[in-house]
């Protein structure tokens, strides 16, 4: 008698750069306790995918866990599933890197478990129609996406109780549709609900399957699920119920099902991810409209399947910070491929280390944002960007001469200039107020420009109904509304500009430091965000110019010139910026001007990272006024000091940049760096002398 099959493919992941205590807590709450009920119920077979960062951590901290997993594999109860080792969004990285990521996972599983994976976990189920080519080149036999992908292709729900062949040109791969119903049933509904759903499906599809692909962290790491799954015994009861129905139900790994059942046919899948991801990627107004339509048609799944949502690439438009990370990653990948032939002969070890840093930098979490995703997590952005800094340092060498790439990061349409030398790299963006979009201090492996603009998010409208305690009922994180502290709505303020240093702000004399912290300066838009013309550039300098209006601060125009000088010597570097305003026409101007810096060293309350001036020392989360024209930022953890000098400035204003973002634990305040404004009085009149100001950052190791 043929049996219906349940295929469970569970995915465990921790990002590159995540905190040690987060790894350990997830291990204690989820990864380790999951193995106990699995061992007690040998009739339950599962596919497990662990990401490379987690494999590396387990091998280092808990090798006994890997030994125990090997026993499950040898007994045939667990199938280890491959994928990109450092958990990249495959469509966001070059084809050669996709193969390198997949092969690195295969090599690890062969070395540690003596198995060659047949399938691959698709990170965040982000699919595009060309992926069969990459999977085919890597020898991958199958993957799993959500049922959403098939429904968007026009499939009916009752066609999703099997798997399909998906092809592109001469390559093909088997694709399992993971059912959204099971994602929400397991483990949040009663065990009997899931069994009844499977029994009903078995009556219609007696030899078919129901597949679920989801995060292993929902069995212990998500809020409330450890007690629910283990203390209260949900997972044991679930596995016992599956075994009790073994006369009609087989709990199989994906490979086991493929051996006994062929594909149901062919499918042509569109660009897609799971439905929540496709909503998160939308621009905020569009996301709000989709949320409204989802609520309005809650009882009409046929209508909801037809709603147009976004694609993962939408994050790169919605968040320029993510786009910049991707472009920097692509730039380093191109450079590595260009240098691989020479380095493979002269210094293969250096080439291998650079490649590992590049692959680690492709870890997906810092490139997007939803309930998951770490774009709003500065330590994850810092980790990814830091891996790129180290990869590029290895490719260039510690004593690289000063250079400038006039095509920026290899994208001439952006008009950027990319300056590099032994101790630093800097990306100058003329189109955004002639500011630095990136600044890395290679000598300390430090990323200095690492903030994110505060912008309206769809979930900000939910803060009014959020509470610190959402009750004891266990629910999917997609259904919970929680806050980590009261009053977060008071922090909702939105930036006018990218958080790039060396921006010129011109504003009224009546404004105070509190207005600066509250983003209420009312600064003139053009000096701040004007598109500058590049007049001259060399390997270590750039001169730019723009004609700007001071509206609404004053009815006047001026020619604004900015000059940058870059120096690198040993383990020290300096960036000097000079600004000149020449009045052209209009009334006399009597206001204030400031050159803004934005720096982030991650820890706003830590004793080893601080601002220092005179006899005072303050943590990085400090807000206040610095008398005089100089300031020191010290990061003892990274052994880095930044000296800020603004000759003639009357004072410096400092305020923390804090976002209100959403995570699996609820709404939270996150420190994104500090904004620092050096101030001068600004008096201009037609025919009068130009106004000049300068500021310098000196970077040194401790």
Question: What labels would you give this structure?
Answer:
nine-stranded antiparallel sheet; Beta-galactosidase, Chain A, domain 5; five-stranded parallel sheet
How would you summarize what this structure contains?
By secondary structure, this protein is of the alpha+beta class. 31% of the residues lie in helices and 29% in strands.
The percent of residues in helical segments reads: 25-40%
Percent strand equals 25-35%
CATH architecture of the largest domain: Alpha-Beta Barrel
Helices and strands: which structural class? alpha+beta
Number of helices: 20
In angstroms, what separates the terminal alpha carbons?
73 Å
**Lateral arrangement of strands in the main beta sheet:** 18-19-20-21-30-27-26-23-24
User: What is the name of the CATH class of the largest domain?
Assistant: Alpha Beta
Structural Rg: 28 Å
CATH fold name of the largest domain, please?
7-stranded beta/alpha barrel
């Amino acid at each position: 008698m043929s049996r219906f099959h349940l295929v469970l493919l569970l995915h465990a992941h921790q990002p590159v750069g995540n905190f040690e205590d987060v790894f350990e807590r997830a291990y204690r709450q989820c990864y380790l306790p999951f193995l106990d009920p699995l061992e007690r119920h040998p009739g339950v077979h599962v596919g497990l995918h662990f990401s490379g960062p987690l494999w590396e951590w387990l091998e280092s901290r808990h090798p006994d866990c890997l030994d125990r997993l090997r026993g499950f594999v040898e007994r045939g109860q667990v199938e280890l599933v491959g994928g990109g080792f450092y958990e990249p969004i495959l469509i966001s990285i070059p084809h050669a890197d996709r193969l390198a990521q997949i092969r690195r996972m295969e090599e690890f599983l062969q070395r540690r478990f003596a198995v060659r994976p047949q399938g691959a976990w698709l990170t965040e189920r982000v699919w595009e129609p060309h992926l069969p080519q990459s999977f085919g080149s890597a020898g991958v036999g199958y993957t799993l996406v959500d049922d959403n992908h098939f429904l968007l292709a026009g499939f009916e729900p009752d066609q999703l109780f099997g798997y399909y062949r998906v092809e592109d040109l001469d390559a093909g791969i088997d694709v399992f549709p993971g059912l959204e119903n099971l994602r929400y049933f397991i483990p949040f509904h009663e065990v009997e609900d899931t069994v009844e759903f499977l029994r009903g499906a078995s009556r219609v599809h007696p030899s078919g399957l129901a597949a679920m692909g989801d995060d292993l962290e929902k069995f212990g790491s998500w809020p409330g699920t450890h007690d629910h799954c283990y203390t209260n015994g949900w997972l044991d009861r679930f596995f016992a119920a599956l075994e009790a129905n073994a006369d009609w139900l087989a709990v199989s790994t994906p490979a086991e099902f493929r051996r006994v059942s062929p594909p149901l046919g062919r499918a042509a899948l569109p660009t897609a991810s799971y439905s929540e991801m496709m909503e998160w990627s939308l621009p905020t107004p569009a996301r709000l409209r989709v949320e409204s339509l989802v609520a309005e048609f809650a009882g009409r799944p046929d209508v909801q399947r037809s709603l147009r949502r976004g694609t993962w690439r939408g994050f790169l438009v919605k968040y320029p910070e993510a786009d910049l990370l991707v472009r920097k990653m692509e730039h380093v990948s191109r450079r590595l491929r260009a240098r691989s032939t020479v380095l493979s002969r002269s210094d293969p070890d250096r080439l291998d280390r650079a490649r590992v840093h590049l692959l680690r930098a492709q870890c997906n979490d810092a490139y997007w944002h939803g309930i998951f995703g770490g774009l709003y997590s500065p330590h994850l952005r810092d980790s990814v960007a830091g891996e790129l800094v180290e990869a590029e340092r290895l490719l260039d060498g510690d004593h690289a001469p000063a250079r400038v790439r006039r095509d920026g990061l290899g994208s001439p349409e952006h008009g950027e200039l990319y300056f590099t030398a032994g101790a630093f790299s800097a990306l100058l963006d003329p189109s955004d107020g002639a500011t630095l979009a990136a600044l890395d201090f290679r000598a300390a492996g430090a990323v200095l420009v690492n903030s994110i603009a505060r912008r309206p998010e769809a979930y900000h409208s939910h803060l009014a109904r959020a509470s610190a305690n959402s009750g004891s009922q266990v629910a999917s994180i997609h259904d919970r509304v929680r806050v980590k502290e009261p009053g977060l709505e008071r922090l909702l303020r939105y930036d006018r500009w990218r958080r790039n240093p060396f921006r010129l702000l011109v504003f009224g004399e009546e404004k105070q430091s509190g207005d600066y912290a509250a983003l209420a300066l009312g600064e003139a838009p053009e000096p701040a965000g004007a598109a500058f013309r590049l007049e001259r550039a060399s390997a270590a300098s750039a001169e730019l110019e723009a004609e700007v209006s001071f509206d609404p601060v004053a009815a006047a125009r001026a020619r604004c010139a900015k000059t940058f000088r870059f120096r690198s010597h040993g383990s020290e570097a300096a960036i000097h910026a000079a600004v000149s305003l020449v009045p052209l026409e209009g009334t006399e101007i009597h206001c204030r001007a400031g050159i803004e810096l934005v720096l982030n060293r991650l820890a706003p309350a830590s004793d080893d990272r601080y601002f220092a001036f005179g006899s005072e020392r303050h943590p990085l989360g400090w807000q206040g006024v610095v008398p005089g024209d100089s300031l020191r930022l010290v990061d003892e953890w990274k052994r880095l000091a930044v000296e800020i000098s603004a000759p003639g400035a009357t004072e410096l204003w400092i305020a923390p940049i804090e976002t209100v973002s959403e995570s699996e634990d609820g709404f939270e305040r996150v420190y994104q760096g500090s904004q620092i404004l050096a101030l001068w009085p600004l008096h201009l009149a037609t025919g009068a002398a130009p106004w000049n100001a300068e500021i310098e950052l000196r970077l040194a190791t401790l």
